[in-house]
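Long-time lurker, finally posting.

We've been working with Glutathione S-transferase (Acaromyces ingoldii) and I want a structural starting point before designing mutants. I don't trust myself to interpret raw outputs, so I'm hoping someone here can both generate the structure tokens and explain anything notable. Sequence follows.
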Amino acid sequence: MTTPDKTRLAEDVGSLEIFGTPFSTFTRSITMGLEEMGLGGHYIQHPFTPHSAEVKKRNPLGLLPVLIHRPDAIYTSAENAVVLFESNAVRRYLDDFVYPTVSRHGKNQHALTPPLPGHGTTQDGVLLAQAAEARARVDQWVSMASSTLFQNVEFGVVKPRLAMEKNGADDATVYTALEGNIDKMHAVLSKLEDLAKRDPTPFLCGSEITWADLFLYPALADLRATPQGDVIRGSDARFPWIAAWSDRMDARPSAKSTYEGTLASQRKK
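Top reply, 14 upvotes:
Generated this for you. Predicted structure of Glutathione S-transferase:
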């Protein structure tokens, strides 16, 4: 029996659908964000793969994820349904339109992007400058995770390794073939380690989780599921800050609830 939603959150938010397999790192960033916003159980995930017919109907590029938001649920007309693709666009929409509704219900008082200050205080200029910098730093990490990190981790090491494993290659053969890519990935991880540990905070942009953490985590979780992930896994990891941060991320309810169907979950079966 379903417990009634006494907060009327579902009615106020409308219906949210995410098109994307849990295997997709960017899809997982978005679903983790929904979970962190307090919307676990308030969205539907359709586990379609990239370039599938269902995805191409909504994103001509065929890439994941795709968000469909019907603000009035089943009463939303086709022309009023919001269809967005590109994970950065999706996160911005969730921040600007969906999260404010959630926060009014007291589900989660922490925004995944630091908000701009309200007007009417004598410190408007100072507060605005601080908030603008904080928001830009989140965007900076998201950009690095979406470009440099993703390219070097997923396309440089994880996906080629999976393809070689599928063809029967052993670890020694994989390492020899990917040695150059692994070295490049280590160079990137070293730079990220240095950036991340500058501030003694548990997350990338302070004491609270942000989109920065949610965009960085899925690709590194994939890496930790492979032998090449030992550099960010365990007490003797080559990159100890990233390893400890990854452990903290693994322990979050949002990571656990989006774990099934990921590379890590499939490799453990």
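Before you design anything, note these points.
The longest helix spans residues 124-166.
The CA atoms of residues 203 and 209 lie 6 Å apart.
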